[in-house]
Design goal:
With 138 residues, the chain is mainly alpha-helical. It has a domain of 84 residues. The chain has four helices and two strands, in the order ααααββ.
Length: 138
């Protein structure tokens, strides 16, 4: 995969900003509190903000992706969202010191295919159609 110099610079800048967030150090204390909470130790209530209407949050272009490559845009979007949340909605957020890499896969024609009707609204939900109506459909 060939990466343009522009895309590389965009991602390096964002990765540097994430590294700065990790280096701030407060995440270690917060991560330890999450570990203790998850082992049922008595600690203060933790706040996790994970339901964010991202398409409504980009009021100052902080979330605008600039990479040209579609795969790299996905990585850029994830980094921009993490940084946005860290700056504006940190609560008890922990910024990881690594970047997860998505699994690559392709679909096959094996099994039952999903049937869905796309939404007529920009950010609306799909309508899923039942594909198994009787035993012979299996």
């Amino acid at each position: 995969m060939s990466v343009s110099a522009r895309d590389r610079e965009i991602l390096r800048t964002l990765a540097g900003q994430l590294a700065e967030a990790v280096a701030a150090g407060s995440y270690r204390r917060t991560a330890e509190l999450w570990r203790r909470l998850n082992t049922l130790d008595s600690v203060r209530p933790m706040v996790w903000i994970n339901e964010i209407c991202w398409h409504e949050m980009n009021v100052n272009d902080e979330l605008t992706c600039r990479c040209e490559d579609p795969f790299l845009r996905g990585r850029e979007e994830a980094m921009r969202r993490t940084l946005y949340q860290w700056r504006h909605l940190p609560a008890d957020m922990v910024v990881d010191d690594f970047l997860p890499c998505p699994v690559a896969f392709t679909e096959s024609d094996y099994g039952i295919r999903m049937k869905a009707v796309p939404s007529t609204q920009a950010h609306g939900a799909r309508d899923y159609l039942s594909v198994i109506r009787e035993e012979s459909d299996v």
